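Morning F.,

Quick status update on the modeling queue. The single chain you submitted on Monday has been processed. Sequence for confirmation:
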Amino acid sequence: MDKDTEQKVARLQLIEQNMQNFAMQKQQFQAQIFDIDAAMEELKDSEESYKIIGNIMVKAKKEMLEKELKEKKDMFELRIKAIEKQENQLKDKSKELQKEVLDNIKE
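Structure tokens below.
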């Protein structure tokens, strides 16, 4: 294998590592969204609401909590979209590099 092909294979490996990192980040954000959805569902039926700040729990206005949770959820959804965009760019680059490597090997 020539040096150019070796470099492309190394870049492919790096892309694969980045894809795995993105998958883990996305999974963490999706878990956060799941927790937020569960909290929002609980808030619907509760008359009193509390918020955890550090190591203490304080009473909070339901409307404020709902607003904060919605904002957090929106932020995580935006982060997921950004990760998905980066994933797609990496997939495209990976396909391109794979084709080049295969073409070089065939020659």
